[in-house]
From TrEMBL:
It is found in: Membrane. Signal peptide: none annotated. The keyword Transmembrane applies. This is Leucine-rich repeat-containing N-terminal plant-type domain-containing protein. One of its GO terms (cellular component) is membrane. Its main location: membrane.
Amino acid sequence: MIEETYGTVNGTYGAVGTCEVTSIWAGEIPEEIGSLVALQNLNLGNNGLKGTIPINLFNCSSLQSLSLDDIGLTGTMPSEIGELRNLGYLNLQFNSLTGTIPSTLFNMTTLRVIHLWSNQFSGQLPSEFGHGLPNLEEIYLWSNQLTGQLPSSISNCSKLTVIDLGINSFSGPIPDNLGNLMNLECLHINDNLFTDESSVPELSFLSSLTSCKALIRLVLAGNPLNGTLPISIGNFSALHYFSAQSCNIKGNIPREVGQLSNLITLELQNNELIGSVPATLGRLQKLQVLHLQGNKLNGSLPNDICQMSSLGDLILSRNNLSGTLRGLPGGWSIPKSLFKLASLSVLSMQADGLTGEIPAEIGLLSHFRSLIWETMASKAPFKCFTFYVSISISLFNCSSLGILSFDELGLTGTIPSEIGELRNLEYLNLNFPQNLAMVFRIWKKKHIWSNQFSGQLPSSISNCSKLTIVALGANSFSGPIPNSLGNLRNLEVLYIPDNLLPMNLQFRN
């Protein structure tokens, strides 16, 4: 075995079995490397090499493992790679290789793992893809420029456990016969142009995939699937992670989703889902992330949600949730027991018709990091909403809170001095205009904008030492501007127009 630290690759080594470079080398891979006919393992990854893949490399006919990842390779993958008849592991990820993937690669019967992540490969996968790779277990083609359909012959690669085709331009239907891959554990096909062309509205390929009893990760996000979730979705017995955001999924969330007893993450945001949030979700004791925002869900939030003892992220904003709260039509209630979920750390909900005080129980959430209330009023100008929401002092017991956002709620009163207890606060938004929010998105922020706050700005705000932007426009703040603002060493922007603040500011070096 050869291990080097610095220098250039000079090809002077003799008959070695393994060459692994553990630190930075410079230069190009030399043509002389082809003389290492006994070489079985070559790892030149994560080094300062450059250039193209030398043709002579494929004279190393004993190679079983080849890693040339993240070394700035350019050019194409030579078709001569098919000469490596013993190769089981190929890693060329994080380079700048272009052109089509040579057809010879798909006839290498010994290949178990193909890593081609993050290159610039283009073209289509050959229709006979699955016929020449009987031992293939993992294929990673993420972030390339591949097009065309996913060949149905892939189902012949019966040993496949991982398929990662994300961030390409694959199109056409997702083959139903993927369900024949009994060993499949991860299917990532996100951010492509896959569609469902079945004659029924249900996404039929999902029903076929339920035969993959080992499947734990299914990522479909960012494909125009245009269908409904089948009730057979409840048969994914092993599934841990299901992401189908931004897929134009319609219809209801099947109540059978409550059968996914091993599910940890469910992401269905930014679709066209209708109906109510199914109460059966409360059965998912392992669920940690539930993202349903940006749909057309209606009805009240079921109390059963509060039974999900592992829930950490709950995002339901931008829906049409309704119900009653203290007898007010059009309002909706939040079960107080929701704030007793010790694991809850992110909560984003719709505020339309919300009335009353944020429950005092919120102060019990020691891991709480983000609280976001949004309104649909600005997106539906034909509606008229009135909000009467007050901030419970106990909120400031959430010492881990980094994001606090109340969007267009018409908040009144003063900002409690206890705000200074939020030492990790980075973003406070009390109705910040959308156009300016785009400008400040890259910063850690504090916005108190266009509400009806009055009184003095508490000097304790200086305890929020991570603040870089303070925007207090269009309120009724009065009294002196606290000198303690000068202690905010990370402050980049102070914006305080349209208030009742005295402007006799004195600046000191």
